[in-house]
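Task 17 of the worksheet. Students: predict the tertiary structure of the chain below and write it out as structure tokens. Keep your answer in the requested format; marks are given for formatting as well as content.
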Amino acid sequence: MARIGWICVVLMLQIPLTLGQSLDDQIKAKEKQIADLQGQLDPKVAPLLFDSNLRLFVSKTVLSLIGDQFNGQANKTFHYQETLQEGQLFNSNGGGLGCGYYAELHDASGDATVPQVSSAYQQNGTISLQTSFDATVQGQVLAHLKGPPGPCSILHPWPTCDCPLGGGIGTSAKLGAQKGAPLSATVTFSGDSNSWFNYDVSGLTPSGLDVTVGVSLEHIGTVGIPTHINLPQGSLVHGSAPNAFQGNGTIVVAPPVNLSKTYSVTVTPSAVTTDTNGYAAKAAANIVWH
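Model answer:
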């Protein structure tokens, strides 16, 4: 009996020791896996800014995903239809025959097809956008030659266009144009104390387009009028992303604690960084309990 009891004690001591060694090995294996994953993660988070309460990082792949979604659409045609007209297309305000002439554009409409959009990050953190378009526009042009000048009063008897006699002659003609060309622009990201994500699209290239406008004249046919259209070189699109990380809230703990506390979170953006990895910003957060 004594020998059997001793053997059982030895076995009981050996079993926990064996299990303990296996558990240590498992812990070491998990720690190694964590260390390996940390080593893979460190280079990816290196572009992020530190020493902040909140950090925002927008990877350079985000814009590529948006471009891929657009390029995958079946319909990439944009339609324009005039619904309201204010003012005249041009007005000579005198000169020429009579008291000058003016022209108005009515029922203007158009279609523009944008087949593909691509983007590329630059070394300075800006984004270069490339696309092309094929557009057709049409409308009705009303041209009017004003009547001759007339006297205004006894004190101003000489004929003047300040007081025209009225009348004149006019005509209406169909107008149309078609143009296709590549376009490029630059997207710039920035941040300030009011918003940590501002965007601006500018630098449209080319700076202008040469277009031949076709005017249909009765009994004559269509006459082509070469013209040059200057494209805007300033800011085309700009805006700021809303700050979604600040506001008010309430934390409620159910019975038996029965605790309810409200809080306010204020976020103040600070420094930003743009480079070939993407856009990174940091901000300070202030939490006030009420």
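Marker's comment: The first helix runs from residue 2 to 45. Residues 37-60+242-290 form one domain.
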